[in-house]
TrEMBL record:
The lineage of its organism: Bacteria, Pseudomonadati, Pseudomonadota, Gammaproteobacteria, Cellvibrionales. Residues 256-343, 361-454 form the PDZ domain. It is found in: Periplasm. Its main location: periplasm. The active site is at 101 (charge relay system), 131 (charge relay system), 207 (charge relay system). Gene3D superfamilies: 2.30.42.10, 2.40.10.120. Its EC number is 3.4.21.107. GO terms for molecular function: serine-type endopeptidase activity. Substrate binds at residues 47, 101, 131, 205-207. Might be efficient in the degradation of transiently denatured and unfolded proteins which accumulate in the periplasm following stress conditions. This is Probable periplasmic serine endoprotease DegP-like. It catalyses: Acts on substrates that are at least partially unfolded. The cleavage site P1 residue is normally between a pair of hydrophobic residues, such as Val-|-Val. CDD domains: cpPDZ1_DegP-like. Pfam families: PDZ_2, Trypsin_2. It comes from Pseudohaliea rubra DSM 19751.
Length: 465
């Protein structure tokens, strides 16, 4: 007979292990994907020549350090630099997708297949804005990966990466989708890729490799990681396949990429601005400036408009607008829904090309005059001609001082800000500023458009009772 205590412990352990057994049975089996899709994943070997060693004036270096900078014999010339990445075949006649940063500045690119065959690759085209590049090798009947649909990808879904981290060929890592539509502005503050965030272990060498769903379809191209150590900490980002399709088609056809361009500078709408613009909640992309001659100006979009929909896609945050516009072809006719003066308006827009946005210049309102605007807690004066020229604007009222704890101080106005709009009314001079403020109901919240260090900005100001 089994002692009662041992029986209870046995039953308890069996009970506790049951959910684990069920959960383990539900985990995906990646073996089919790895076996079927790995042959179309490639390793990319890049060779480039760095510039000559910079000449150092040793006379300016202390004597005890000088020997470390003195060359024995001839100074070294250009040096070869090797780097590597990953990629994948998208057509059986040799077209391969990878990251732009993998092949940027390369003197030679070699593609190695899973059977260790190597081919010299031609760079068909690159697109730094999306960090994508298209290569081609002289080969036929290659294994090909299928492109899926990233708009069918859900947060929490299993995904799989295959690549060559640190040169370790055909390494497989798996995880889940952590978030969709992540905005990661570039050094030029451009934001045209709605990245897929995952916790898949991605390391140097994985760049350009595919991200698979459980159907074995490519849903993204691994591009970036967030790290403090140089290795994976569970924050990796992939370019969604919708962007990949658009870029690859253009690179294959023309060798370059042209994006949709609207010609606006935008910002997020916070709670204060939402109240100022009579929105039910913070939403949309607030237009801070419009480039002269741009598609936005031609369509009648104005500073102070809040774009809440573009081409039928709801715009919840300002970061979403470039993602939508950037995927459109120049010349496309779409509708933009804007909120202006608390009312929704639908405007017809003919999308332009991004190349037109090389040097946007934005006109602002304003002229001369001086005076005082004590009602909101500022002193101001007409912007001097040199200030207007410096910031590239045609006029405005410059804030000279802000009274502590005043409405202007609480709104975040700073000395040096140039006011150009109150609500939808342009500020021609201090008299027009005074008239615009007097037209607002006491205690109401009103949006102010200003230029701060050359950059347009909207803030919400609550007027005193």
């Amino acid at each position: 007979m089994i002692p009662q205590g041992i029986l209870y412990r046995t039953l308890l352990l069996a009970f506790l292990s049951l959910p684990l057994l069920v959960t383990a049975g539900e985990l995906p089996d990646f073996r089919t994907i790895v076996a079927g899709e790995s042959p179309a994943v490639v390793k990319i070997l890049v060779e480039s020549r760095s510039g000559a060693h910079p000449r150092i004036d040793t006379e300016e270096i202390p004597e005890y350090l000088r020997r470390f900078f003195e060359f024995r014999g001839e100074p070294p010339g250009p040096r070869e630099r090797m780097s590597l990445g990953s990629g994948f075949v998208i057509s059986d006649d040799g077209y391969i997708v990878t990251n732009n940063h993998v092949v940027e500045g390369a003197d030679s690119v070699v593609v190695r297949l899973i059977d260790r065959r190597e081919y010299d690759a031609e760079v068909i085209g690159t697109d730094p804005r999306s960090d994508l590049a298209l290569l081609r090798i002289e080969a036929e009947d290659l294994p090909v990966l299928r492109l899926g649909e990233d708009d069918e990808l859900d947060v929490g879904e299993w995904v799989l990466a295959i690549g060559s981290p640190f040169g370790l060929d055909y390494s497989v890592t798996a995880g889940i989708v952590s978030a969709m539509g992540r905005s990661l502005p570039t050094e030029r503050n451009e934001n045209y890729v709605p990245f897929i965030q995952t916790d898949v272990a991605i390391n140097p060498g994985n760049s350009g490799g595919p991200l698979f769903n459980l159907d074995g379809e490519v849903v993204g191209v691994n591009s970036q990681i967030y790290t403090r150590s140089g290795g994976s900490i569970g924050l990796s980002f992939a370019i969604p396949v919708s962007v990949v399709r658009n870029v690859v088609d253009q690179l294959k056809a023309e060798g370059r990429v042209t994006r949709g361009w609207l010609g606006v500078t935008i910002q997020d709408v916070d709670r204060s601005l939402a109240e100022s613009f009579n929105l039910e909640r913070p939403m949309g992309a607030l237009v801070a400036q419009v480039a002269p001659g741009s598609p936005a100006e031609d369509a009648g979009i104005e500073p102070g408009d809040v774009i809440v929909s573009f081409d039928g896609v709801a715009i919840d945050t300002s970061a979403e607008l470039p993602h939508v516009v950037g995927l459109l072809r120049p010349g496309a006719d779409v509708e933009a829904v804007v909120v202006r003066d608390g009312r929704r308006r639908t405007l017809a827009v003919e999308v332009g090309g991004l190349d037109a946005d090389e040097d946007p210049r934005v006109a602002a309102a304003g002229s001369d005059g001086d005076g005082d605007s004590a009602r909101i807690g500022i002193s101001a004066e007409t912007a001097a001609p040199e200030t207007l020229e410096r910031w590239g604007i045609s006029g405005g009222v410059v804030v000279r001082s802000v009274v502590p704890d005043s409405p202007a101080d609480e709104a975040g106005l700073l000395p040096g800000d140039v006011l150009t709009l109150v609500g939808s009314r342009p500020i021609q001079d201090l008299d027009s500023l005074r008239e615009a403020l007097e037209a607002q109901a006491p205690g109401s919240s009103v949006p102010l458009r200003l230029i701060r260090r050359g950059a347009p900005l909207f803030i919400g100001l609550r007027l005193p009772e």
